[in-house]
Design goal:
The structure is a homotetramer. Chain A is of the alpha/beta class. The first copy, chain A, folds into 2 domains: 80 residues, 2-Layer Sandwich (Alpha-Beta Plaits); 194 residues, Formyl transferase, N-terminal domain (Rossmann fold, 3-Layer(aba) Sandwich). Chain A is built from 8 helices and 13 strands. A 7-stranded mixed beta sheet of chain A has the order 7-6-5-8-9-10-11. In chain A, strands 2-3-1-4 form a 4-stranded antiparallel beta sheet, with helices on one face. In chain A, helix 3 packs across helix 8 and helix 7 packs across helix 8. The first copy, chain A, starts with a strand and ends with a strand.
Chain lengths: 285, 285, 285, 285
C-alpha cells in the first residue's frame, strides 16, 4: 500500500471548466483529493492550482501519471510539476561568515523538523567546517577571489550536479551567483535577505535601518534571480525596534527573524506550496 | 447580463469525488468558477467547501439553482447555503455604553467600506441616539431591568423579524441574550470580546489583564452561543503592553484592536467565507 | 491646587552629572517626579531626557519655571521645551480625497480619545465639508491649481497663524508643502504615509506593493521635512497580505493601518514623548 | 581601567526626591550614568529604578559600593541588587524530552549570543546527553519516579549549589519543582510555557488550542512560583494559526515561538532589566 500523496502544481490561461477537468482526472482514476487550492489572477487571466491526492488506491502508477496527464496538460497549455510526498529533496546550503541560519537549519534537520537532506554545506570561508562535520555532514570550502570566481562557481555547480542537489539555500551567502548558475537552478535557489525588501536592498541593511531611523525591521525569503534582491518574495516577517537599539542590537533581533523566516520559506517550498508567477509568488498556505 | 456571482458554502461527510462532483455541477451548467476553496478535517472525516462562480452565462436562474442542486446535496448528505454577491445583508447593531465599535461601523458604512446596511441600532441606554440619527440611521431604545428583560428581548426579536434583519452585531453589548433569541439567529450573531479568549472571559477583561501582568492583550470576534464567551472564534488580534500601561491605557489600546477585529470579522462573514463546525470555524481567507 | 504636570523635553551634549543636575532642579523646588526617561546616543555623544513632575506643591509658578531653568540650560548647552499637561493643543487637519483618517480623528475627538482640539479642517477638495460641519467643526476649502498654489498656501498659513494652530496633521493630504510653510511649523507637522517607508515612497504605494509582490504592507507616521517621505519616523505598523489581495484589498487593509498608526503617532506627540534628533526620533514610550 | 558598568536595580515606597538622591549618589562619586529608567506604580505607591553607570573613573571600588550605598538604601526602605556587566552568570538548563529550546540555547551560546555560561544540563531523561556532550558541556541524568522525586530534587539542588549556579532555566522541563527548591532560587528560575498564559495553563496547550479553535497561539516566559503557570510574566509572543493547522502544525509553529521568547526573556534577565513586583514584572526595555 502506497502511503504517500501526489501533488500537482500547475498554471495555465484561465478558462471555464478547469477545476472540473482536473478533479475529474483524479476522480476517474480513483484518487482521493486531500487538498485542493486554486487561484485566478484577474489581471493576467491566469489560472493556478495545487492538488494533492492519495496514491493509495490510485489507478495510475507513479510513472504513468505524467504519461496520462500530458495530453490534458497540452490541451490547456499548462505548465506543471508533479511531486510525491515521500521524496526527500537533496539540499545544499551556501554560507559565508554569518552562521546563525546554517546552525538553525542543521539543528532543525537534527531534530527532524526539516523535510530535506542537508547533503552539502558550501562556503567561501572555512569557519563553518567544524560545526558541520560535528553533525556528520559534508563541508566543501571554495575560497573565492576576483580572479578565480568563475572557475570556482563552475566547480561548485559541477559538484551540485554530481550530488544530484535539488535545492540550493543561500543562508547568508555573500557572493553573487552568475546567470548560468541561476539558470540551471531556476526557482530552486532560496535566499534569506536581512531586510524588509524592497527597503534596504544591497549591503549592510542593519546599518541602513539604523541610519534611516525606522521603527520596524524585517527579513525576506525569496527565490534568487539575476536582479539582486529582486526575486519573487515568498515570505516576510518583522520586529519592532526603538531608538535604544544600536546596530548590534538590530543585528541580534534580525538574526532571530532571519532564522524563522528562512525556516518558514523552506517549509513552504518543501511542501510544494509555491508557484512562481512573473516576479511574484502564489503561496497556497 | 448578471454581473453577480453565486457562492455555495457546504459541508458533508468526506468521500472520494466530491470536488469533481461539485465542479462538474458548475461546469455542466456553463458556470465559470472564480474561487474554490476546500478543507478536509481528518479527525472528523468531514469535507468543507466554498465555491464562487459567475452567474453571467450560467444556465440556471437564481431560483433554479437550489432546485437543481438539492438532489445532489441529498445524495452526499450536505448542509449548504447559497448566497449572491449583489445582495446587501440587513444588519442590526446592539450596543450599550461603550460606543467606539458602533462609531467605527457607522463611519465604515458612511465611507462605503461595509457591505451591509445598518438598518437598526438597538441599545439598553439612550447615549448613542444622537450620533446614530445624525447619520440618518434608526435608533431604538429598549431600557432593560431585571423585571422586564424577557419582555424587552421578545420585543427586540419581533422588531428584528419585522425588519427582516439578517445579521446581529453585538458591538460591546452588555446584556446576555436568551437561548430563544440565539436559536432564531443561530450563527448570525457576531460578538466582539475585549480579550484574547479564552483568557479573561467574563467581566472587565482590561482589569483582569492588568492584574495578571500579561505583556500582550487581544480582542476576539466570535459567533454567539449560549455558553458565554465560548462561541466559535472567527478572528483574533493582539497588541503589546508593558508595565507602564494603566488599566485606562489598556482600554485605549484595546479599543483600536476591537474596532479592527470586529471590522475584519464582519468582512469575512459578509463575504460568506466562514463555515461553522462544532465549536470552531473554518475561514476561507 | 494645580492638578497638572509639567514636562521638560531636552537634549544636550552628554556629560557627567546631567541626570543629577536635572532631578535636583526639580527636587530643590519641591517637585515630585512622576516619569523620568533618558537616552544617551553613543555615536553622537548626545543626551536626551524627558522629565514629568507634579505642579502641585512645586515652588515655581508656570511662568517662573523657564526663567529659573534658563541659566541651567545655557550652562549645559541644552535645547529644551516645556509643556503642561492641562493645555489642549490646537490642531488643523489637512485632507484631500481619501477621508478615512479624517473620519477617524473626528470620531476619536468626539469620543474624547484625542487630547487636542480639531480647530480647522482644510482641504483642496470640497468633499469633506458635510461630515466636518455635521460634527460642528470648521471646514475651509482652498482649491489648488498650479497657478494659485503659492498664493493659496500663503493664505492657509495665515489662517493657521490667526487661529493659533499648534499642530498640523496631514491626514492623506496630496499637496506638497513649501519650505516656508515647513519652516514655520518645523517638527509640528505630522504626515501619515501609506507604506512601510522607506519602501514605496512617492505615489501610489498600494499599486507599488502589489506590483512587487510583497507579503507584508505597512504605514508610517512621520514629521514632515522638505525631503518628501524622508522626515523623521515616529511609528510604523504592518499587516500581512497574500497573492489573493488585489490592489483594492491592499487599500482596504492599509486604511485600517493608517488610521491606527496616525492615532498612535498623534498620541505620542500630544503626550510630548517625542524628541527629534537629526533625521530620527527618540520616542519615550 | 575598568571597562565594565555597574547596575543598580531597586524598589521602595515612592516619595519626593528619589531620582535626585540616587543620581546624586552616582554623580558625587564621579560616576557617569549611561542608562537610567524609572517607574512609579500609582496603585501601589511604589518606586522602581534601574541605573547603569560606568565603573571607569568611579570613586568607589566594587566592594565599597554596597557598603556606602547601604545607609542610603535603609533610609528609603529600599530592596536592591547590584550587578556588574562583566560578570558571566552561571546557568543550568533543565530539560525533559522536547529538546528544541535546549538546542537553541546551546547554539546561541556557541555563537556567542548568550551572556551566560551553560554550566550544566540536567534532565530526567537521557535523550539530550549526546548533543550536550558533543558541544563540550556537562550533562547530568536524574531519573525521577514518584518514589525518588524528593531525594533526586535534593541531589539536584545540592549539585546546583556546589556548581554555584546563578540561574535555572526550565527549557521545557516536565517536573514540578518543590517549594524548597523555588525558595532557594526565588526569581532566578525561568520557565518557558508553550501557550499564551493565562490561556491554556497546565498540560498539552497545543491540543487545548486546537480544541478551542483559537486563531492565534502564543508562548510565555515567566519566573517560576509555587502556583504552576502563575508566576510573574516577563515576555510573550504570538503567531497566527488557521483551521488548516493540525495539532502537529501548531506544535511546529509554537516551537519557533518558544525558542525566540525564551531567548528574549533570558536576554532581559541577563541584562538585569527585570524587577519583580508582586505577581508582575517591570521590564526596563
Amino acid at each position: 500500500m502506497d502511503e504517500a500523496n501526489a501533488i500537482l502544481l500547475l498554471s495555465c490561461p484561465d478558462q471555464r471548466g478547469l477545476v472540473a477537468r482536473l478533479s475529474n482526472f483524479i476522480f476517474q482514476n480513483n484518487g482521493n483529493i486531500v487538498h485542493a487550492d486554486q487561484h485566478t489572477s484577474k489581471s493576467g487571466k491566469l489560472f493556478f492550482m495545487r492538488i494533492e491526492w492519495e496514491l493509495n488506491g490510485f489507478a495510475l502508477g507513479r510513472e504513468e501519471i505524467p504519461v496520462v496527464f500530458t495530453p490534458l496538460a497540452r490541451q490547456y497549455d499548462m505548465k506543471w510539476d508533479l511531486h510525491f510526498t515521500d521524496y526527500t529533496p537533496r539540499m545544499a546550503i551556501f554560507v559565508s561568515k554569518h552562521l546563525h541560519c546554517l546552525h538553525d537549519l542543521i539543528l532543525r534537520r537534527h531534530m527532524g523538523e526539516l523535510a530535506a537532506g542537508v547533503e552539502a554545506v558550501i562556503s567561501n570561508h572555512p569557519d563553518a567546517r567544524e560545526l558541520v562535520e560535528q553533525f556528520g555532514l559534508k563541508f566543501f570550502h571554495f575560497p573565492i577571489t576576483e580572479k578565480n570566481k568563475d572557475q570556482q562557481e563552475a566547480r561548485e555547480l559541477e559538484l551540485l550536479r554530481e550530488m544530484k542537489i535539488d535545492l540550493v539555500v543561500l543562508a547568508r551567502y555573500m557572493q553573487v551567483l552568475s546567470g548560468k548558475f541561476l539558470k540551471y537552478y531556476g526557482n530552486r535557489i532560496i535566499n534569506i535577505h536581512h531586510s524588509f525588501l524592497p527597503a534596504f536592498a544591497g549591503g549592510n541593511p542593519y546599518q541602513q535601518a539604523f541610519d534611516r531611523g525606522v521603527k520596524i525591521i524585517g527579513a525576506t525569503g525569496h527565490y534568487v534571480t539575476e536582479q539582486l534582491d529582486d526575486g519573487p518574495i515568498i515570505a516576510q516577517d518583522v520586529i519592532k525596534i526603538s531608538h535604544r537599539d544600536t546596530v548590534a542590537d538590530i543585528q541580534t533581533k534580525s538574526k532571530d527573524l532571519e532564522r524563522v523566516v528562512l525556516a518558514r520559506v523552506l517549509r513552504l517550498h518543501l511542501e510544494n506550496k509555491i508557484l512562481v508567477y512573473g516576479s511574484k509568488t502564489i503561496v497556497f498556505e
